[in-house]
Amino acid sequence: MPRADATAARRSVTVEERLFSLVLALVATEIGLTKGEILATVQGYRQRYSRDATNASLERQFERDKDDIRELGIPLDVIEPPDDPGSNHNLRYRIPKGLYDLPADVVFSSDEIMLLKLAATVWREGSLSADSRRALTKLDSLGVDSSDPVLGYAPLLRSREASFDPLNKAMDRGVVVSFAYLKPGETQSRRRRVAPRAIVLHEGRWHLFATDLVADAPRTFLLSRIVGPVVPVPGATFERDTVDPAQEALNGLDALLHSQVAVLAVVAGSDAEVRLGKRGRKDAGQESQDAQASQDAQASQDAHGATVALHYTDLTILADELAGFGPEVIVLSPPELRAAVLVRLRTVHDAHHDNP
């Protein structure tokens, strides 16, 4: 076995990667692939496939994967060969592309098209791994057109935080990591030792959901506050979740977001009113809270201008943003947010004050 293939064979392929590769292959084929073709070519199967021995365990895995795909709501066609009816060996499998086409009456505005194009920037051509390229070569020999766009692209999330990739790798491998974390208001970072469970995007910011092994409790960290490298802890591993930790993380962040409301007085017609007004929200569970906040601010509205009730998750980040609007925004509540904004404005004033 060539060295590259031997290395690939030893590499563990995750369930998610195997299912993703299987879906890509079944979408790409028009005529369908037989079980043997799938096991011999698709990433996650081919590493364990043997042409000279039975592949009973691999076939059982494929049967389970078929059920998983259907449970995800993905339609899976099974095509019986007309010249060999009743033969399970020559059944062909495919995912019909037509079921994913948009209805003819669905159209997008220019703004929506722009947003779709921005979303598409997380996809990059030519990012397939060497293993996937070898699989494509084999699929080509079976008559599958590997120039199909669904196989020519692979998802690639771009993140400005340097900690994103090492945390993601540690999470996939079940490896404990440590990093220096700088909390708001502190001048010295503290080293955290965690088992990373999920990385989620919430309100435009990346968060790490992890188990803090020192505190023995779940914690959420902003990736932008991780300073320095993410370092694997030698010999320290953890069992990966059997449930979806990402959803647990998002639920916690949503709960925090809905529980905190800032009431702001903004200058009518200002940039602050336009930008912050669009983010003001009325969630079903927060109607009464927002209404009370608006009543508290009503007495100040005539003096300060329009009033905006804004939910937030991180007081420090919101204070940084509001200070950037200068005199266009006055924080009416909560008091701690108002104090944080005033500190920032005074710092800017002092930095620009004329020295004698």
UniProtKB/TrEMBL annotation:
Database matches in InterPro entries: CBASS_pafABC_assoc_protein (IPR051534), WCX_dom (IPR057727), WYL_dom (IPR026881)
Biased composition (Low complexity): 288-302
Region (Disordered): 278-302
Domain WYL: 164-227
Segments forming domain WCX: 272-347
Name of this chain's protein: Transcriptional regulator
